[in-house]
Amino acid sequence: MGAVTDDLAVRPPESSTGEAPVVWGNVPQRNKHFTGRADLLSSLRQRVTGKVHAVLAHALHGMGGVGKTQLAVEYAYRFMGDYQLVWWVSADQPTLVRSSLAALAPRLEIDIPEGRIEDRLQAVRTALLRGEPYERWLIIFDNADQPEDLREFIPTGPGHVIVTSRNHRWESEADVVEVDVFPRAESLEFLRRRVTGITDEEANRLAEELGDLPLALEQAGALQVEAGMSVDEYLVLLSEESGKLLAANQPTDYPLSVAAAWSLSMARLKEKTPFAWELLRRCAFFSPEPIPRELLKNGRYVLGPPLQEGLSDPIVLAQATRELGRYALARVDNNRRTLQVHRLIQRLIREDMDDEQRGSIRHEVHQLLAAADVDEPDDINNWPRYEELLPHVRPSGVLTSTDGDARRLVRNIVRYLVNIGDLTTSEELTLEALAAWTEASGPDNVDVLILSGQQANLLWTQGKYNEAFELRRDTLERMRNILGEEHAETLRVMNGYGADLRARGEFADALNHDEETLYRHNQVFGEDDPRTFNMANNVALDQGLNSRYTDALATNARTHQDRIDFYGRNDHPLVVLSIFATARELRQAGKYREALATGEKAYAAYQQLVRQRTLRPDHTNVMGQMKDLSVTRRKIGQIEQALDMAEDILDRYEATFGERHPDTLAAATNVGNARRVSGDITQNNALMEMAEEQLAATHQAYGEVYSPDHPYTYGAAVNLAVVRRRLGDIEGAKRLMEEALAGLRARLGEEHHYTLVCKVGLATSLADVGDVEEARQLGEEALDALRRVIGEDHPHTLACAANLAIDTQATGDAEAADALHADTVARYKAILPPDHIDVRDAETGRRISLDFEPLTL
């Protein structure tokens, strides 16, 4: 924009303050659709009016189309009442800067002929420096490029200077305010004001596809208003002909269309720095999220010439990065060492290629991503790297690649997501990749088999046990035939198959399978391999499910120490998992004090990992440990704390997995048991009724989610019988106990811990209906077996003994009853707090109820 020659050009608008600038020159028309930007305007105002004399100018920096010019225009209008002079200079060409500033001379009462432009320019700068005749002035240099081209023109003095530029080099010359795309809320506000009748869902889709770019939103809004185009129609055109669409319908309030805002910059970059242009073309196939520069540098190992040479030279790469920033075609973050390209720039670049070019460059991007894969997603130290790569997986198209290294990356990303607890994203990527790979390579392809095994693991984690079992069984058979029994991936699927057996309630078969698989892991990987540790962890779980608590504790102790030795830190998630597992086995072994101390230690460690954002709050291990700690707190007598935690964790499970997930059912069981005990202690019948409702629903759900004859379904029946007995339904409780005992005997055997707990409960029911002799006989059988299976001082053994003393007394054998009672009370007091409800019940001769607590399988 040249010198002002018309008096109307300097006529100031009306000011909201009642005072208008004496001189008002070249300022563009105010945008009537201007929306939001309150924080940016406030920040700019504070900086401009601050007393920072060392700063010559305040720069608005950002890519084309983010609204730098519009922000400067809005600032000029909003605060014009504070200025006597407001002057706008188009700064993209130095000759225009000279003429625009020189044109200020007559407004500053400077009488120098127009032909002597240098003299006029110097006089203008002097007048502004002295503040004569106007002390309160604002000069805006719009669309500046290199700082050195403008340095001689920037005035000093009592007034203010604002520069808008795409060039990030202004950071060293001015106080920079970074102008980014709209926050999503402002995009939605803008579209609602701009397009009558647009829904929030439509506005959100439009903002997402346009990357919240203000210029693109204005252009799209105008097209819909003027042409009657719907959001769906616009988005279809955007996907099919983005270049043509973004070049059309230039908004009246903006000097350029979206495409034009960048096309000149891209043309100049291509001409002056071809290597930077080629780099930008690769960036067009990544996500619009930050791209680690280290990832691009890997191209020196996997790409061919000419890119290989440039990526191998740090100076050439640095120059290219600087040029991308200079033209604002990429956001350069030197602190995080990343590049970021707006999605519309990416779209325009991709559309400008033919199919062969797109395919070739997309493959190169797949190579870059694969080269950044450290190939160990189970190592916590590598998680930050996978976090950087994750945003680029789907946009790059690597999910559909047939390249082996690229497919390895996808498998590792899926495993990483499971490790951090993001099951939803993991499943989405798995299903998308599996469909593409199976179609391209067939069901027996090695990559397809490996990812199928990971899909089975995902299904299992989501509680879809039957689907996981069927898929894993088929996958394992194929792997054995194609890869062999001792292939690393075959062994990984074998490990998961043991989990399938556990979920089916086949606890003995699961233990046999996992012990054999552990032996194979030791043979193939060795004793000091994380995969072997994971397998040993599962064996310990199997041992606990088969009532072999001493063995489980010993296995966990070895695994815990192996993991500490391997990872060299106590806060590694897998080390914490071993602490969690040890606490679980200590509780099952009846060592409640030690279980509580160990469980609290695991809880503190997991919460620290959550605070550090290493694990998500809804990670299965984090929630599982909280559920187990709640059980332990209840067992040791901390009833109120146990119930509070039980209800909290149930809410989390329901929010994460829904009400029908097996782990949610375990959490619901814990709540029901905690309410029953709390209601028993406080004599709160309402709480007891709530427990009955909870446990009845859980019992029914177990039968539907697992099967009617699953051990956990029978265990849930035991819990329901206990609470119904407390509510006075003696016959109903007895029937449930009889059905559960028959089922547990058939599924787990006569001397399994779960079977014996049910026997203790049935003995109580028999006594309730007057079958005292039968109750005593069943109690004696149970006590003898409990002493052998779980030990003489286990709380469950002592509960059986306390109840048996009551039945022995009722059958007339007072001497034996007294001896058993005294011995039991003494043992109880040695292992539990003196005010524990079970200790008090044992002392007073009140029957003790044993409940069932399902483990996370």
Structural class: mainly alpha
Question: What fraction of the residues are assigned to beta strands by DSSP?
Answer: under 5%
The CATH architecture of the domain at 7-178 can be given as: 3-Layer(aba) Sandwich
What gross morphology would you assign? Answer: elongated
- Helix amount, in percent? 55-70%
Report the major sheet.
Answer: 6 strands, parallel
Count of β-strands: 9
* CATH class bucket of the domain at 7-178: Alpha Beta
What is this entry, summarized?
With 857 residues, this protein is mainly alpha-helical. Helix content is 65%, strand content 5%.
Description:
- By secondary structure, the chain is mainly α.
- Among the domains are: 172 residues, P-loop containing nucleotide triphosphate hydrolases (Rossmann fold, 3-Layer(aba) Sandwich); 72 residues, no CATH class; 104 residues, Serine Threonine Protein Phosphatase 5, Tetratricopeptide repeat; 126 residues, Serine Threonine Protein Phosphatase 5, Tetratricopeptide repeat, CATH 1.25.40.10.
- It has 41 helices and 9 strands.
- α5 links the parallel β4 and β5.
- α28 runs antiparallel to α29, α31 packs antiparallel against α32 and α31 packs parallel to α33.
Any chance you could write out the topology, listing elements then pairs?
Layout: E1 23-25, H1 38-49, E2 58-61, H2 68-78, E3 85-90, H3 94-102, H4 117-130, E4 137-144, H5 147-150, E5 160-165, E6 175-178, H6 184-194, H7 200-209, H8 214-227, H9 231-240, H10 242-247, H11 258-272, H12 274-283, E7 291-292, H13 293-297, H14 299-302, H15 307-312, H16 314-326, E8 331-333, E9 338-340, H17 343-351, H18 355-371, H19 383-389, H20 393-396, H21 404-420, H22 423-441, H23 446-461, H24 465-482, H25 488-503, H26 507-524, H27 530-545, H28 549-567, H29 573-588, H30 592-611, H31 620-636, H32 639-657, H33 662-682, H34 685-705, H35 711-726, H36 730-748, H37 753-768, H38 772-789, H39 795-810, H40 814-831, H41 837-844
